[in-house]
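Any chance you could type out some protein's one-letter sequence along with its backbone structure tokens so I can compare the two?
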Amino acid sequence: MNFDFSDDQKMLKEQVRKFLADKCPMSVTRRVLESDEPYAKDVWKGLVEMGLTGTAIPEEFGGLGLGPLELCVVAEELGRVAAPVPFSSSIYLAAEAIRLFGTQKQKEAWLPKLASGEIIGTVAISEGVHAAHPRNIETSFAGGKVSGVKQPVTDGSIADVVIVAVNTGGSGEQAISLAIVDAKAGGVSTEEVRTIDPSRDNVTMTFKDAPAEVLGEKQGEGWSQLSRILDGAAVLFAFEQVGGTEAALEMAREYALERYAFGRQIGSYQAIKHKLADMYVKKELAKSNSYYGAMMLNDEGSELTEAAAASRIAGSDAYVFAAQENVQTHGGIGYTWESDCQFHYRRAKFLALTIGAPIQWKEKLVSRLEAKNAA
């Protein structure tokens, strides 16, 4: 069984890496973080021109017609540079939701625009600090209108289309649907939410009789649809986290080789060696889980849910750990505003909470394994 990427996929990875190394150095992330710019429009334009926003969108809808594996290698390179762009919201989530569950008419209306970068999409699920659950989704859908409040919504202030988890009446999973809302059609307002990573836009999004339509053919299938969308996104986010982990490890290693203390490279001291070794071990564990998740996602395997949860857990653990140890390796300078260590630390903490905290994914993994063992 081959768990490696093909030569073509590796070539795509290399092309994306070269582009981002040239157009998205850490100075770009710093520029976005220190300004009111919601995202790096120049980097986003370049990604669009390379066709990357249409990577997994079928050719009939204006995409490249590739697949999840190609999207995984793109995600890893975006994570490596902590790119301040809405790629994950628009492509991993909104575009995939419509590709997987939209009607033919909905796909024709939205996918070409998402693939071409003409519009940006996102999803709105959570309604506060608690984990989203069928029992606490209060945003309503009735008469073709959505009303309610969602927070936080990543890239909400720049989104043109929003996939919203709504309650269509009643209780339980069958009451939940996903609705497509044109954010520019009226009835939608946003208010900025400050997070640990200001290089990614986050808002409170309020819907007041916003025109909408149910995603797919009928109501009441939203929770199962959402679970599948998030499983796929979990694998893609895990690849972002692997890329970020590798970048943080490389940053720490380079500093450990160039920094001298008491006449020796600090990398020669056992304490620093242990830090780097621990970072490497966690990175490799996350990478292994992510590769298995990618295989399940590509094959629509029966163990996708378990593989996605394992990828998400290992990716979050590795990236947060590596980002923290990178700061520690840099010593006092690692805590300063001038240091670039902060960008991976911020992004690691942010990604660990996106689409659900690790504890939620651990509970999901355990419940799935218990159910399989009981069967």
DSSP finds eleven helices and nine strands in the chain. The chain has a mean pLDDT of 95.
